[in-house]
Design goal:
TetR/AcrR family transcriptional regulator, Arc Repressor Mutant, subunit A, 2 domains, TetR, DNA-binding, mainly alpha, Tetracycline Repressor, domain 2, HTH_TetR, Homeodomain-like_sf
Length: about 210
Amino acid sequence: MKTRDKIVSAALELFNQKGERNITTNHIAAHIEISPGNLYYHFRNKQEIVREIFALYSGELLERFTPIHEQSESLVLLKHYLDSIFTLMWKYRFFYANLPEILQRDERLHEEYIQVQDKLQGNLKNIMREFVRLELLELEDDEMLSLTTTLHMMASSWLGYQSAMSLKTDITEEVIHRGMLQMISVLKPKATEQGVDQLDLLADGVKAIHA
């Protein structure tokens, strides 16, 4: 692995473990046993590392949330998208847990974030339309924006909400899975009979992980 990639990987690991605000470039350099000067050869400051991580995150996000038109198995399709939401939430949990602060101090990153989220909203609408086509959901066109906005808001703010509501700031996979169950509950009122069955199967699978 190239030094630049090692720096990014180490930063992501440390940010997730201890929180981005608690980690300095010196911590990152020490973690992979290079000098601070070597790190600064690749990145001028910590904010550039955060931007690099965001670029990786946004690339994965948009790739995972492209509708899969050839997929006809509704449960597989639903599981793919819900798993994608929370897999990325876990992988980049530092970003979700401290989102407002990270964005407020970097205008360029904030602009990039908005652009990516706009694309994601469009993809989510297409995914909801695919669920309607597969007779999993019953949605009118004017309901589509409201539902996708709610799901998007939950995905982007779930970890921050959980951190604010707990004296312990540790984010665990169980917290992530509770978010998945919450999103399933939001989808249920708009689900068809077939859709409810599929959602119940998904929810049972998530609960079984921590049984």
